[in-house]
Amino acid sequence: MTDAITATAPAATALPFGRWLAAHGQRVEHALERVLPPASMHPVRLHEAMRYAVLSGGKRVRPMLVYAAGEAVGAPGPALDCAACAVELIHAYSLVHDDLPCMDDDVLRRGRPTVHVQYGEALAMLVGDSLQALAFEVLAATAGNGAGGAASAAMVAELARAAGSTGMAGGQAIDLASVGARLDREALEDMHRRKTGALLRASVRLGGMCAAGTSAHGNDAGVPPMHPLDRYADAIGLAFQVVDDILDVEGDSATLGKTAGKDAEQNKPTYVSALGLEAARRLAGQLREQARGAIAPLGDAGHRLGEIADLIVLRES
Amino acid sequence: MTDAITATAPAATALPFGRWLAAHGQRVEHALERVLPPASMHPVRLHEAMRYAVLSGGKRVRPMLVYAAGEAVGAPGPALDCAACAVELIHAYSLVHDDLPCMDDDVLRRGRPTVHVQYGEALAMLVGDSLQALAFEVLAATAGNGAGGAASAAMVAELARAAGSTGMAGGQAIDLASVGARLDREALEDMHRRKTGALLRASVRLGGMCAAGTSAHGNDAGVPPMHPLDRYADAIGLAFQVVDDILDVEGDSATLGKTAGKDAEQNKPTYVSALGLEAARRLAGQLREQARGAIAPLGDAGHRLGEIADLIVLRES
Question: Which pTM does this prediction carry?
């Protein structure tokens, strides 16, 4: 896929964004197809359920961030494919566990029955557990795919922190504890910085870290300057959640592919409940500007990241 | 700890096994204490529950295998500490998830209430998820602790395969599907080779792989000869499960620290139900001999591994 894209696009940024998105969307689908064990492999029901959980047409926002950040700093394509799959596998595992009866108890995801509705609770838990392990297996393969061993180990640590108790899983624990509570904006931001932001941020950073093994960045352990990427990632991480909260109020279940109005029904604190709808909309717009400002130092190379910031804020589902 | 052990033991193998075990047991407790986030760190309830799950006095068989295999091939101590913690964190996470109501629904573990009884189901799931992420974070730290980047990435891939859908989690899925079924010995072995064997085997292999960065094994990517370690690991992996099944029938809950007779009660296939008690005992003895035979080529360096094989087969809980 990398070769095909290069052949049709003399300058990467010349490709219209819609075509870039479609091409990279196909690319990560193919990569996920390849890294997931075939449904015919023993134990077949587990592998079938893992594929059901992952290959169900999500928006693949996190892989797009990996590719856009990686291409901005000249990272090798095969390493980016590994990192893109890894972040999406972590995301997919978190959705499977999040939907379980002991957590959000959701029955609909991307317009289809959730994994535990389709395969039972016990298998759904094992699906999530297995997808997390697979994410790290695939990420470790960046070592042999252009990133080098030291950068690969650093990426594993980065993704593990983003997924773990001070990142995504920690954010979910705070979310659990805050059902029915009234969080102020600072506490809400802290929760979302962990729950959703940490993995979005890691996606951007992993894209950048894949470039560590290239000659442009000298040695195996070096990574490109991360400050613009970090500030960008922080802004879009929060923007993503603010827009999610707005869509939960404004959207309908058919467009969202999940149950709308669920947050209010479950009495969960959201940006809309904390700020009101209009202020939440303004905040999303401000965060989009912050994200675009952060990557200005990257010049034209940051082009795709800017377009993804727009996509995140202006999406309708 | 490494220095203290070296100082009191001119030749490592001269230390009586009991003292070696006690010293390495203390060593891994200290290392686990260090790598687990403090209970005072936000989110505190999650971190408290993670520590409850891990720091509750298990036998630490897997860390002992890491140390014994690593010392047999001259691996650096700091890398072994990372690998020892990583395998124990994976083991601890699997127990937390295994005990959940949707799985084994167990209320007692190591003589204390299980994590979900103590902290609720949702948090118990997040504890398991967080411990798995932490395992990979800690294992990636082998890169900067004497193993080198390439070996560290290879170890992450090794542990991920052992924990994932074709290893431990896959074995649990097969276990789930076989409740009430009558498995023949081949099918039982396949299940246990995944469910328990894969992580025990990985523990032995990771110990060996930690030596990849030492001068004795030349370059960063090289690993010491794995055949004796692999054959040893296969034998003790099965032996461990056979003995577990025997103890479930013979033991009492107080000695085991968990509910005895649970397998029969849940109509789970075991070596005892498949072979009968006497034949299961004979099999455990044969596997112990196989394990000792496998490491004979290592000579005196394999001493501790032999003693651990004895420990696994002759234990009473």
Answer: 0.91
**Overall average pLDDT of the A241-246 stretch:** 93
- Residue A192: its H or E element: helix A185-192
Asked which of A117-131, B202-216, B254-268 is least confident by mean pLDDT, the reply is B254-268
CATH 3.40.640.10 assigned to B13-312 = no
How many degrees, rounded to 5, is the angle at CA B274 between CA B270 and CA B278? 95
Tokens 């359920």: give the residue.
Answer: A49
Which residues numbered 99-138 in B keep a CB inside 8 Å of some CB on A?
Answer: 100, 102-103, 121-123, 125-126, 128-130, 132-134, 136-137
Q: What is the ipTM of this complex?
A: 0.91
At residue A57, the pLDDT reads 81
CB proximity A146 to B under 8 Å: no
**Token pair 């910085």 in the structure block, residue:** A193
If one compares B218 and A104, the residue with the highest pLDDT of the two is: A104
Minimal C-alpha gap between A207 and chain B (Å): 17
Question: Is A13-311 in CATH node 3.40.710.10?
Answer: no
Side-chain-side CA neighbours of A28 within 13 Å: the count stands at 28
Whether residue B80 is predicted with pLDDT greater than 90 in this model: the reply is yes
HSE-up of residue A239 (Cα within 13 Å, Cβ side): 27
